[in-house]
Amino acid sequence: MTLKSALDDVLDVTLTAVSGIVGKLEYLSGLQETSYSYSHWGLSRVYGEGAAQQALGEAHSACFLATLRTSLRTLRDDVEVSSRGKQKPAEEYIKNLRGRWAALLPTDLGGGSARHFSSVLHALSSLASNQTKSQPRATPPS
């Protein structure tokens, strides 16, 4: 039996159940109770509160940086996947994310910036809006 670290558990188990990198970032930010504290009962129970806090913070920072490093084309596709996981249209999903963009930020930005992240969300919102407008409307049968 191999033992995993709390971070390995978050990355290899917990986050595999969440669709898309944007969805993972949203999930991790949802575990934040304050800017310095996360809540994950199972992880805390297995690894202890300190290890769980550190692992969730590191995973949150890693997902944040991965989002900033990913091309807009890939992120556009990822938003489609993440929005389907939430059963929402991509345009509505990204609009909700933009409305709470500051809450998605990890405490440790790891060299990334809030301004860059805001710009990425703005670009994704524009892409989702344009994609919705360019989709052909269904015509009723005659």
What does this structure look like?
The protein has 142 residues and is mainly α. It has one domain. Strands 1-2 form a two-stranded antiparallel sheet. A hairpin with a 2-residue loop joins strand 1 and strand 2. Helix 2 packs across helix 5, helix 3 crosses helix 4 and helix 5 packs across helix 7. The longest helix is centred in the middle third of the chain and has 21 residues. It starts with 5 loop residues before the first helix and ends in an 8-residue tail after the last helix.
Please report the number of helical segments. Answer: 7
Are there runs of 5+ residues with pLDDT below 50, and where?
A: none
Radius of gyration: 17 Å
**Major β-sheet, in short?**
2 strands, antiparallel
What is the H/E order?
Answer: HHEEHHHHH
Helix content: 55-70%
The average pLDDT value, as a whole number, equals 89
**Kindly, what is the distance between the CA atoms of the first and last residues, rounded to a whole number of angstroms?**
65 Å
Structural class: mainly alpha
- Specify the overall morphology: globular
What is the strand content? under 5%
Q: Total domains, how many?
A: 1
Tally of strands? 2
Largest sheet strand order: 1-2
